[in-house]
Design a protein that fits this description.
heterodimer, A: 154 residues, Beta Polymerase, domain 2, 5-stranded mixed beta sheet, two-stranded parallel ribbon, 21% helix, B: 388 residues, Cytochrome-c3 Hydrogenase, chain B, 8 strands, 48% helix
């Protein structure tokens, strides 16, 4: 499906979705409340059928006090891509898990929790994945500091 | 005269359990496989829930060699970040380099030339062969046959030698960079690659007679660890693991980069998604890679090998830039988040092995521990790529 057509189809499913600019592929920002229901429809709608979650990660916009989640979707049937962005408050990043839509989300979400501290509602097994269970802080946040870190030379 | 009944070992054990009035029963227990274990291919730990020798559940535990590559990337220029990517999947170092180079070139509008793209394609395919050779050898060893290991490494050595001459390294290669390749190819490169192809073609047939046509090996692979197409897609598996399950998704074909569009090659696709299909797909991919190299090696156009001065710290326009390549294990993607500086604001790497590994939680339960070793080996995982 062409980019314009893709975006208008997503907008018909979720009227609150807006275009996310400065991304080199079709990209939409959606409110966090719509996440599980919209994601399920993106997967099940025959014209879209986004059956693969290629990657799920986050970006810490420290100065704007928000964390932006990125869902990179791909359809093995139609061979098109879509990036879905969800903004969360940095102080209270909570969103519903999509692990029952795509199996792999269970582990990708664990990584985002591990690195950014995003909490996923109704996740079957939310715990750290790469770091130790007793690690303090979330390393990929921009304000993360620990005693082992070296300062970059000026 | 009473009838004679023949019993089985299971029956004998069950009788023994009952003999003490039911005090002893079978019991599920947990065993750690790894982090130091010869068949987990690195520091990967699997917590196994076993019933006797039957696997009930697999819980992978990661992070033993997590180095924080993404955090380091936030303090390095794009060209410097290339030097971290080969420490992820060290058997696909060149393809990983390429993913970063491709992302930066697309974002900063750097036009490369035909020579650069052809060289990149050839070296990436050479390394795909080398990677599959190593996998084949190790796969044989995991199944209990030591000879394939020696054969695989003997032939991989030839590719290492060829690449060393041009690139200067044998394992952690940093060759492809934004705006070109670091050095022009060695004067002997084309001749040696052609010599290698003539040398290796009969050797590949030898691989087939040694391992593929071995009945024991076939019995241990056929029907073991079946991954359905639907599950493979839902678990985000890519590369040979996905294609063995019957989904013909290969970036070299669906979104050609480099000069793949110019070369004729087939994408091998399996039917059942068992270990046998994953094995067969990789063997066939070696053949296809040799076909690609054969078509390109005599047609490297003239031109510069680098279009950007190495000292330049390339600035990337503000925005999110994504690029991906097909490595020997699947799709390696790089997401650059730029705020217009010469250092990324955030960099995310999507590694194929991270997603491929989790399929083991679906495929292994119900099989024995020895089959689990086969299944893991057939996924061809590289642990630094999972842990990043």
């Amino acid at each position: 499906m062409e980019a314009n057509e893709l975006i208008s189809t997503v907008q018909s499913l979720e009227p609150a979705a807006t275009l996310r600019d400065k991304v080199d592929r079709p990209a939409m920002s959606v409110p966090k409340e719509s996440v599980p229901a919209l994601m399920r429809r993106l997967r099940d709608e025959p014209a879209l059928s986004f059956d693969m979650l290629c990657a799920h990660t986050a970006i810490d916009w420290h100065n704007e006090n928000r964390i932006e989640l990125v869902y990179q979707l791909y359809s093995t049937k139609h061979r098109h891509y879509l990036a879905v962005f969800v903004s969360l408050l940095r102080d209270m990043p909570v969103v519903t898990s999509v692990s029952d839509v795509w199996r792999i989300a269970e582990w990708q979400e664990r990584e985002v929790y591990d690195m950014f501290g995003v909490l996923y509602r109704s996740h079957p097994d939310l715990r750290r994945i790469l770091l130790d269970d007793d690690w303090k802080g979330f390393p990929l946040r921009k304000d993360y500091k620990d005693e082992f870190m070296l300062e970059a030379p000026k | 005269m009473s009838a004679i009944t023949v019993t089985s070992l299971d029956e004998r054990i069950r009788r023994s359990i009952g003999a003490d009035g039911g005090a002893s029963t079978t019991q599920e227990y947990f065993v750690n496989m790894g982090p130091q274990h010869p068949s987990t291919h690195g520091v990967l730990r699997l917590v196994l829930k076993l019933d006797g020798e039957n696997v009930r559940e697999v819980i992978p535990v990661l992070g033993y060699i997590h180095r924080g590559v993404e955090k380091m990337g936030e303090h390095l220029s794009y060209r410097q970040f290339v030097h971290l990517t080969d420490r992820l999947d060290y058997l696909s170092a060149l393809a990983n380099n390429w993913a970063v180079a491709k992302a930066v070139e697309k974002a900063a509008n750097i036009e490369t030339n035909e020579r650069i793209e052809t060289i990149r394609t050839i070296v990436a395919e050479l390394q795909r062969i080398a990677s599959h050779q190593l996998w084949w050898g190790v796969f044989g060893m995991d199944l209990g046959a030591f000879t394939p290991f020696l054969y695989g490494f003997r032939d991989r050595e030839k590719i290492s030698d060829i690449l060393e001459e041009t690139i200067g390294a044998r394992l952690t290669m940093n060759y492809i960079q934004p705006g070109g390749v670091m050095f022009d190819i060695h004067p002997d490169f084309q001749r040696k690659v052609k010599e290698f192809l003539t040398y290796f073609r009969p050797k590949l047939e030898e691989y087939e007679t040694l391992l593929t046509q071995n009945v024991i090996v076939q019995e241990r692979m056929r029907g073991v660890g079946v991954l359905t197409a639907e599950k493979a897609v839902s678990m985000g598996a890519t590369g040979p693991v996905l294609r063995a399950s019957g989904v013909a998704h290969d970036l070299r074909r669906s979104e050609p980069y480099g000069v793949y569009a110019k070369a004729a090659f087939d994408v091998p696709v399996g039917r059942n998604g068992d270990c046998w299909d994953r094995y067969w797909v990789r063997i066939e991919e070696i053949r296809q890679s040799m076909r690609i190299i054969e078509q390109l090696i005599d047609n490297i156009p003239e031109g510069k090998h680098l279009v950007v001065k190495p000292a330049v710290r390339t600035k990337v326009p503000e925005g999110i830039h994504y690029s991906q390549v097909e490595t020997a294990r699947g799709i390696f993607g790089v997401m650059l988040v730029s705020d217009g500086k010469d250092v990324p604001y955030r960099i995310h790497v999507r590694t194929p092995n991270f997603n491929n590994l989790w399929t083991v939680t679906e495929t292994a339960p119900g099989w024995r521990v020895a089959d689990l070793v086969t299944i893991i080996s057939s996924l061809d995982i590289v642990v630094p790529d999972i842990d990043r």
